[in-house]
Amino acid sequence: MSLFNTTYDVIVVGGGHAGSEAAAxxxxxxxxxxxxxxxxxxxxxxxxxxxxxxxxxxxxxxxIDALGxxxxxxxxxxxxxxxxxxxxxGPAMWSPRAQSDRKRFAELWRxxxxxxxxxxxxxxxxxxxxxxxxxxxxxxxALEIDIFSKSVVITAGTFxxxxxxxxxxxxxxxxxxxxxxxxxxxxxxxLGFEHGRMKTGTPARVDGxxxxxxxxxxxxxxxxxxxxxxxxxxxxLTKQRSCYITYTNPQVHEVxxxxxxxxxxxxxxxxxxxxxYCPSIEDKLDRxxxxxxxxxxxxxxxxxxxxxxxxxxxxxxxEDVQFEAMKLIPGFENAKMFRPGYAIxxxxxxxxxxxxxxxTKLIENLYFxxxxxxxxxxxxxxxxxxxxxxxxxxKNNGLEEFTLSRSEAYIGVLIDDxxxxxxEEPYRMFTSRAEYRLLLRQDNADIRLTEIxxxxxxxxxxxxxxxxxxxxxxxxxxxxxKNTGANLEKVNVVLEKNNSSLLTQKIRLDKVLSRPNIxxxxxxxxxxKLIELSESFGDLKTEVIEQTEVQIKYSGYILKExxxxxxxxxxxxxxxxxxxxxxxxxxxxxxxxxxxxxxxPKTIGQASRISGIKPxxxxxLLVYLxx
Length: 627
Ligand code: FAD
What we know:
Layout (H helix, E strand, L loop, with lengths): L6 E7 L3 H12 L4 E5 L13 E3 L3 H10 L4 H8 E7 L9 E6 L1 H13 L4 E5 L2 E7 L2 E7 L4 E9 L8 E4 L2 E4 L11 H7 L5 E12 L9 E3 L23 E5 L2 H9 L22 H7 L7 E6 L6 E8 L4 H8 L10 E3 L2 E7 L17 E3 L9 H19 L13 H12 L23 H12 L4 H23 L4 H10 L11 H5 L6 H5 L3 H8 L5 H13 L1 H18 L17 H10 L4 H5 L6 H10 L3
Parallel strand pairs: 1-2, 1-9, 2-6, 9-19
Antiparallel strand pairs: 3-5, 4-5, 7-8, 8-9, 10-11, 10-18, 12-16, 12-17, 12-18, 13-14, 14-15, 15-16
This protein binds flavin-adenine dinucleotide (FAD).
């Protein structure tokens, strides 16, 4: 009897962050899904930092949540600390970040997937793909089993021909303690895919019992922590664990430099390009040699464990050099090391080989998501997984492609950047990559995306109902502020406290709120009507107050950005036929013909973002298309 005598709708290869969201999305939409991963114990393992979110990444987690994914819910339920970063800047920059309990995070993801009926599991390694006439039919595994499916999503992370480096030692592996994945790259190359090599690294983990925290600065979580998910299923933390800050110094640097000769980074053994914004400590010493110290964040790995993650001390220097240098860091004099830092090199496939749905251009029904596409980060991986899982289901059932535009979501920005421009170094999200970042805020991800997700069959009707209520309550609150005159006596007390000029005549409360430093929470207390209305919002009160405040304070900027987005949407709306033969457009330069043929942009907007494509090329295309 065969173990797998069925043809699955979707096979997801790899149970990392991309694979977990991909499997959940396709299965929740109704696809019979098989998740094949090398170790079922390590589902959604955080390979590096035990944290989710952060600048621009926090926005992505909230978008995944609004779309009906689980990264936010799992984070909330396993968080040990929550912070809203950049609160002193404008709301486009506010970014939620949570420190997670690494072990519980992985455990809860596994239980979450087990809770979805349509997900089957198989622990094995995929070594080959079954393909006929440029269409995927299934996979072959290391246990010599053929498993068939209508579509396959590959989310192999850092495992494809992964090579771990630690000083002069190097060995195959996808992550410390786990085997590398061999076979998929080789097969894809034979099929004509281009591939490249990237690298990343992770710092040492130490025994928290051996650290002297009195020599470090404490970094507690927010006093009034929020949470990631818009769902009432999760609650903000009632207790948190602190992180700490300490610094390297010239003595630490001197010891680290003694290992440079043996460093795989400097002696040419590592060829792949690494994440520019997450450099190793040796990279930092090399690039910023004038700096006397570098900041380190000392982060607990969970509620109970004493293991500590030394954020900022990523290194592939020999373990004894890492250890000796570490002991010279204030607070680390008696440190005991649990695991040394290391670097890893792995194969990736330039994402310009993908369509917007993350389906490969070369092989039908084959999708790539996550680090395999040259990205770095759990959040970047998770959202791609979700998009690939959704699209695999849609295509299998002859349904419309599901894509998001750059003005709808950071996810749209990420995928458009990847498939249009490609990436030669690990791609991570930043707010600066989004041209409409005031529209793509973390606080309105639910308003932007829940309706679309509900139509797809992912976000529940209850979720949608909740978002509709939030929108309605916000409108009512804004209307009340616009129609209520300020109580001069009470409002002036608030203004005086915040060094804002006092009112001499009655103005509407929305005008008072537009002033810098004046918070809605303070203004509410000046009016019985506002108190009464805000109390009627129930558990949506905090969100509605935040939403109202942002919409009133930034209304001018938001309208301006919407206006620009609408204009650009017209360019995005000008489609380019699939069968256009660029070689026949003689006015285009050879370079432009080559780039346009390779990327095969779907719209004029996308064509305009291909690096090297000039405004004159766009004019030629518009003329050709009869515009
Ligand atoms: P992964 O989380 O890597 O998951 C891949 C999964 O696929 C694994 O479960 C694996 O078992 C499975 N798999 C692979 N091949 C096969 C196969 N053939 N058959 C079956 N299953 C397979 N990110 C940052 O943002 N900043 C950092 O500083 C950073 N440092 C890192 C340091 C290290 C050492 C490592 C390993 C990763 C680091 N990352 C960092 C990257 C981060 O871990 C990834 O971005 C994220 O985990 C990618 O998610 P993914 O789902 O694409 O892949």
